[in-house]
Design a protein that fits this description.
single chain; about 160 residues; alpha/beta; YbaK protein; 8-stranded mixed beta sheet; globular
Length: about 160
């Protein structure tokens, strides 16, 4: 599949210097990190939460858990995790469950926790829109790609 059109256009608009990294097909972000031989700290995962019919994209490293109560307090909203069946319409050019951590090209507000390892990694990897490729960018480039995302502390290392 490679990179879906919306994500590819976003990377081009941002003049991103990226590489594609192939890995065996996986079903979870931790398995992806293992199969791609990268640290879970360096793999950004996108998790979709919602309040009623409004969706938000939350970004943390693959070996972090979102503290929903902390996120709710930060947002002052009663968000819950979206179910996988809701993701197809939000990311129509991606395989189900292969959510890139860039909400901007999909019209989603994005929130990330820069106090995690993603704020310190030399290279950051993220889903390319399928379960067989990752996009690799420098840590600095990742910060640039996340420039319009909201920030807050709402996660912890597993």
């Amino acid at each position: 599949m490679a990179i879906p059109k919306k994500l590819l256009e976003f990377l081009k608009q941002q003049d991103a210097n990226y590489k594609l990294v192939a890995h065996p097909r996986t079903g979870s972000s931790m398995e992806t990190a293992e199969q791609a031989h990268i640290s879970g700290d360096a793999l950004a995962k996108g998790v979709v939460v919602r309040e009623d019919s409004e969706f938000l994209l939350v970004v943390v490293p693959s070996d972090y858990h979102i503290e929903l109560e902390s996120l709710r307090k930060m947002l002052d909203r009663d968000v819950i995790l979206a179910v996988e069946g809701e993701l197809g319409s939000l990311f129509p050019d991606c395989e189900l469950g292969a959510v890139p951590p860039m909400g901007e090209p999909y019209g989603l507000t994005t929130i990330w926790d820069p106090n995690t390892t993603l704020g310190q990694e030399e290279r950051v990897y993220f889903e390319a829109g399928d379960h067989e490729y990752l996009v690799s960018v420098s840590g600095r480039q990742f910060h640039e790609l996340m420039a319009h995302a909201e920030r807050g502390e709402f996660s912890h290392h597993v």
